[in-house]
Design a protein that fits this description.
This protein is of the alpha/beta class. The protein has seven helices and seven strands; from the N terminus they run H-E-H-H-E-H-E-H-E-H-E-H-E-E.
């Protein structure tokens, strides 16, 4: 009896999506302001169908952490910090690797257009059932585009972001 309830819990946990967002990449600046972060969050939620009940991890550099942490933290997101070249990407990759290898997630959404995700996760792709990418229009590397199951593009429009296109990769 205990064994079957544990397997049900594992199946439920792995069926849930996990979101990994490089907010600097999606906003388009290393020092995003609160309105930029909020606009990206609204556009992101729109293209992925919301994140209620799902786990969200957001990464940024140390200088942006207070703005990003406050703005994204209000929605329950976990904040990771990483500075320097690819700092936010590497912080997210460490969490993704841990979660995938422990079998906690098989459905991922990556909020970034950086090709580093395709390169660094290629050895784990067989463990990922579903991989969506949310990126800025014109801001996704070809390698990541091919690596994903689905790509959702958002486009800046003044202070707001608009959903531009959804394509199957």
């Amino acid at each position: 009896m205990l064994r079957s309830s544990v397997s049900v819990l594992s199946a439920t946990a792995s069926a849930r999506r996990m979101h990994f967002i490089d907010i600097e990449n999606l906003v388009g600046t290393g020092l995003p302001c609160e309105s930029g972060v909020s606009s990206v969050r609204r556009a992101y939620d729109l293209v992925v169908g919301g994140t209620t009940g799902e786990l969200v991890t957001v990464a940024c550099n140390h200088k942006a952490a207070s703005v990003v942490g406050f703005t994204m933290g209000l929605s329950g997101a976990q904040l990771q910090r990483g500075s320097g070249p690819d700092g936010a990407d590497l912080a997210l990759l460490a969490v993704i690797r841990r979660e995938v290898l422990k079998g906690r997630v098989r459905r991922l959404v990556i909020g970034s257009g950086d090709a580093i995700f395709a390169r660094e996760l290629s050895d784990l792709r067989h463990l990922i059932d579903e991989l969506d990418v949310v990126a800025r229009v014109g801001g996704i590397g070809a390698e990541l585009y091919r690596f994903a199951d689905r790509v959702h593009l958002i486009e800046p429009s003044g202070a707001e972001f608009a959903v531009h296109l959804e394509v199957a990769a």
